[in-house]
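Subgroup meeting minutes
Present: P.N., E.W., G.H.
Scribe: E.W.

1. P.N. recapped why we're keeping a running log of single-chain structure predictions: easier to compare across weeks, and new members can see raw inputs and outputs side by side.
2. G.H. added today's entry (230 aa).
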Amino acid sequence: MKEIPFGKLFLLNSANILLNNILPARSGELSWFYYSRKLGINLKISLWSFLIGRLYDFFSLIVIFSISYSLVFVNFLTLFVLLLCFFVAYTLPFTVRIIPSVGKLTDLKEFLRKEFTSSLSLKLFLISFLGVVAKAYALFILTRNILDINLFIFTTAFAGGELTSVLPFHGFMGFGTYEAGFLLPLNMMGIELRDALKAGFIAHSFLLLSSAVFGGISILLLHIPFRKFP
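Output recorded in log:
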């Protein structure tokens, strides 16, 4: 999406997050392709950016959960986990070879071979990982007066809640499923469920409110009447 200014991509992403939170059965994901088209982005490129974004966000959540878990329970494995994650990020582009050369997949495969390099993969991983870390730390600051736990224990709960966002079905705006994912790791560690539920609800509500503010403004800007759409 090199031809699209960062500001417009920010609006696109913010609108997608809000609609994905509100609409049932992950149908809000379709907004990514709708607004991409409005911005003049080719379907092949919008599909590639969508899939790669979801892949690296999911990968980053797995990584941050694994690192936090190892720091809490098996400290000596932390370095190994970190090195393994970088190795996976570096070698991920080589998996393009397993995409079958059938129909439209042939074009996508050729596109990925050209664009999806190991250098780009590492950059995407670092950006996504740092974004997840910043998000987790912000929620930790927000809820630390409720839960008397350290950052690494909190991060395992955060990752559990965030991983529920990839479920094909969830409660309205994620209520219930997010809290369940947040509670499970803390329950396994013996944390008081009442405080954990309160912290999970506050963290989730804060994320929804943030997405509503940024997403609402973004949708309005994307629908300005005098905007020149293709």
